[in-house]
Structures are given as structure tokens and as C-alpha cells.
TrEMBL record:
Domain of life: Bacteria
The organism of origin for this protein: Ramlibacter henchirensis
Lineage: Bacteria, Pseudomonadati, Pseudomonadota, Betaproteobacteria, Burkholderiales
Membrane spanning residue stretches: 41-63, 75-94, 100-118, 130-153
DUF1468 domain segment(s): 10-154
Keywords: Membrane, Transmembrane, Transmembrane helix
Translocase listed as a keyword: no
InterPro entries in UniProt: DUF1468
Protein's name according to its UniProt entry: Tripartite tricarboxylate transporter TctB family protein
Amino acid sequence: MRIKSQKDFVAGLMFAIVGAGFALGATNYTIGEGARMGPGYFPLMLGILLAIIGAIVVFESLVVETEDGEKIGSIAWKPLLFIIGSNIVFGICIGGLPKLGIPSLGLIVGIYALTFIASMAGEEHKAKEVIVLATVLAILSYVAFIVLLNLQFPVWPAFLTR
């Protein structure tokens, strides 16, 4: 069978692989059942659903004719690196890196860092808009995760809370 849409084929394959990976990883937790869900139930169902959607997209890429084969263009490295980098920095801000002596900087600093780094992925970088967005995200995250869900993780830098 000939691939009629390269973009859809690769995207569907990626969905199927990631979905299967999440479903497989969820089996390490207690699954439970619909009425009494365990911690692995939701990621298992989401992984299966994502894998099914991926399989459907792959199938359509082999069946549905496209005008030019929808070839895959060049990879946008700048946005890719900034988005992935911002998530890594956010994780480091939340948990720190004790082996390297980097303390936890907390949720608020993490959200500001994430927002500023991710904003550099675009063509324009307007500092005022990024500050407003980071502030709104920080407030909403604090309310959602700390106040409403009562999650226990650092909000402020470790050196300020001692």
C-alpha cells in the first residue's frame, strides 16, 4: 500500500506509539474497574483511546488520496527546543536538582520561567504580555493546585521558606 499523506501517516504513527506506551506504562499501577477505578485506569483508557485514534489516522493516510502527498516539511527546531526546554526548566524549578545543589524554586518561579522561555518560541516576544500571562497563570495555578486541590509541593523558593 502506498502512503498518500506523509503528514497524517507520521502523526498517526506517533499517536499510536505514544498511546500504546502510556497504556503499557499504566499496567504498572492498579487498574481497577469502571465502578472502582485504580490509579492506572485513566491513563490506560486514555492510552488506548490515543492508540486507536492514531491507528485510524494511519489508515486514512493510506486510503484517502491527497493532492500532493502532503510531504513533511522541515522541522521547526527553534519552537521545539524552546517548548521542550521550558518544560524541563519548570520541572527543575518545582523539584530542584539536589545532586547538583540546585534547590527547589517553587511553583510561582517555575510558572514565570516556563512562560518566559516558551514565549521565545514564537516570532514575536512582547514582555508586557508575557508578564501578564505569567501572572494570571501563576495565580490560577496557585488557586487550583494549592488552595482547591490541596496538593503538597513547594510554592516559593526553598531559601525563602526556611
